[in-house]
Design goal:
By secondary structure, the protein is an alpha/beta fold. The chain has one domain: Ribokinase (UDP-N-acetylmuramoyl-L-alanine:D-glutamate ligase). A 9-stranded mixed beta sheet has the order 3-2-1-4-5-6-7-8-9, sandwiched between helices. A hairpin with a 2-residue loop joins strand 8 and strand 9. Helix 1 packs across helix 7, helix 2 packs parallel to helix 3 and helix 3 packs parallel to helix 4. 48% of the residues are buried.
């Protein structure tokens, strides 16, 4: 038997499996572990993808999604939920039902609709299900600007003309406690990320725009927010710490394949190991 010790914060992540290890469930697990949490995982889909794009998505049935979650929730004390790609509207409903069984736990929703290359990662009704079932249950929603406009737009409304603050206003009106809109896709010199609640803008952070593209940056950010909440930080503190961590993973990212670079979630460990080698 291991010696008695305090438990690390435990976070349950729902997401699709990415065999490249750059995004999806693998990104969640790496990020949570790097930030001192014990990650639990529920597979919502199996994907065929690499660092260049997604070739195929095979959704897991909603019943299996619910069974995976309930098995670990009955066994271990979870401190937060993180939700990434859900793949189908049935999976959205199953996850919402699980969340309702644990109403005290914070929920971080990364509303993944497409891959970084633009490959669709769910049926057309997934966005509607996210807005109706998971946004109202979310502590923090972390859309990029494209996702924010897609989720917030009214039927027939032009998304390209929709201000991001209006998107956040609509998502908080739907029930999200906080919305963190990331500006990676905006034509700005710096990346501007803005945190909103029902009162409006809470904080705005500017980050140096790094060259190139990254596979799994949004997954990393959302998981880092969930880790902060599981460690007991309040939302603005968790968001600030998550942005700082994510930016450094990108700055230290590596290009292992032919496509996008992979964030280095273990940059601290790698730096410490390099220092130890040279001592």
């Amino acid at each position: 038997m291991p010696r008695s010790r305090s438990l690390p914060p435990i976070v349950l992540a729902f997401a699709g499996s990415d065999p490249s290890g750059g995004a999806g469930l693998q990104a969640d697990l790496l990020t949570l572990a790097a930030l001192g949490c014990h990650p639990l995982s529920v597979v919502t889909a199996i994907t065929v993808q690499d660092t260049s794009g997604v070739a195929a998505v095979y959704p897991v049935s909603a019943d299996w999604v619910a069974q995976q979650a309930r098995a670990v929730l009955a066994d271990m004390p979870v401190g937060a939920f993180k939700i990434g790609m859900v793949a189908t509207h049935e999976n959205v409903a199953a996850i919402a039902a699980v969340i309702d069984e644990h109403p005290a736990l914070p929920v971080v929703l990364d509303p993944v609709l497409t891959s970084g290359r633009g490959d669709p990662l769910g049926a057309g009704d997934v966005a509607t299900a996210l807005v109706e079932l998971l946004v109202p249950r979310a502590t923090v929603v972390t859309p990029n600007s494209l996702e924010a406009r897609s989720l917030a737009a009214a039927p027939g409304e032009r998304t390209d003309a929709l201000p991001l603050e209006r998107c956040a206003e609509r998502l908080t009106a739907r029930g999200a406690k906080f919305v963190l809109v990331t500006g990676t896709h905006e034509p700005t010199h710096e990346v501007v990320n803005a945190l909103y609640d029902v009162r409006g803008l809470i904080r705005s952070d500017r980050w140096e725009r790094l060259p190139g593209e990254y596979h799994g940056s949004g997954c990393t950010l959302a998981s880092a927010v969930a880790a902060g909440l599981a460690h007991g930080l309040v939302v603005p503190e968790a968001v600030q710490a998550a942005q700082r961590f994510t930016w450094q993973t990108l700055a230290d990212g590596f290009r292992a394949g032919a496509g996008q670079a992979i964030p280095d979630r273990f940059f601290r460990l790698r730096a410490a190991a390099a220092d130890a080698v040279h001592e």
